[in-house]
Amino acid sequence: MNRRRFLAAGAAVAAGAMGRGEEPILGSGNAVGLAQRVESFQFSRVVDLTHTLTPDFPTGSGQRQLRMERLATWPKDPWNMYRWHIHEHTGTHLDAPLHRSDRDSADLIPAAHLLGPLAVVDIRRKTEADPDAELTLDDLRAWESRHGLLALGSIVAMCSGWDKHVGTARFRNAGSNGALRTPGFHLEAVEFLLAERDVKGIVVDTLSLDRGLSADFPVHVRWLGSNRWGLECAANLGELPPKGATLIVGSPKIAGASGGPSRVFALLQ
């Protein structure tokens, strides 16, 4: 068993144990035995789905949401160190259920719920013609007709191609009245995922789970209110196949947080 396969298998064992409420046993003499039982889990490529966060990263409000205050400078001081002044919902970030409901905060999301098989639903053809396009129930049915039913514990990502606009005014795409014109999930698609499929989270490459023109954020209300998480401002979804990747969300574990900037990866077999 090569090192990459061993590490991947160890991660799978740990995730499975956490899903059962167990502590993974990775001490000498146990790790190899556990890894061999999930030897089929291996990966050949890691795709980073995280934008680099800078103070000028585009935001829904249009206001800056990150400032880094220098506290120490090496070698004048013993180390380099900053204090961050940051908005929870900036950059590639998690929306915990608490963000739009009275459900779980970020620290209460079980670790096993932050990884799973990723289904990438590509709606780029629609968004090129219409910035207000949404991922609809028809899009989900078309995906399943080609790739089979969504796997248990799936994570569903909307690939609108919007990440290519980061760094330009097009990413917010604000009209003269200030309303944003960007893609998002349609409420009907979310209702289908809640009622008919076992899905842990949803992902968008835009600023919001809802399309930009939404005034009352129905997708946020319904999805987060079901005690599930969402992820906004993902990068590089267009590099992934529709099926076959495993998503891992490294979200903040801060007591009471409604979300926060996250490092997000997709593992490809």
Please state the CA-atom Rg, rounded to the nearest Å.
Answer: 19 Å
- Strand residues, percent: 15-25%
Number of helices: 6
As laid out across the biggest beta sheet, the strand order is 1-13-11-5-7-9-10-4-12
The first-level CATH class of the largest domain is given as Alpha Beta
Distance between the termini: 15 Å
Count of discrete structural domains: 2
* Regions with little confidence, pLDDT below 50 for 5+ residues: 1-39
Shape: globular
Main β-sheet: number of strands, strand sense, barrel status? 9 strands, mixed
Order of helices and strands: HHEEEEEHEHEEHEHEEEE
Task: Kindly report the average pLDDT value.
Answer: 89
CATH homolog superfamily of the largest domain: Putative cyclase
> What structural class do the secondary elements suggest?
alpha/beta
Helical content stands at: 10-25%
CATH topology of the largest domain: Glucose Oxidase, domain 1
The overall strand count is: 13
- Give me the CATH architecture of the largest domain, please: 3-Layer(bba) Sandwich
Structure explained in plain terms:
With 269 residues, the chain is of the alpha/beta class. It folds into 2 domains: 3-37; 45-268, Glucose Oxidase, domain 1, CATH 3.50.30. The chain is 22% helix and 23% strand. It is built from 6 helices and 13 strands. The strands form 3 sheets. Strands 1-13-11-5-7-9-10-4-12 form a 9-stranded mixed β-sheet. The chain has a two-stranded antiparallel ribbon with strand order 2-3. Helix 1 (3-19) packs across helix 2, helix 4 (137-147) packs across helix 5 and helix 5 (187-196) runs parallel beside helix 6 (218-225). The protein is globular. The two termini are 15 Å apart. 38% of the residues are buried.
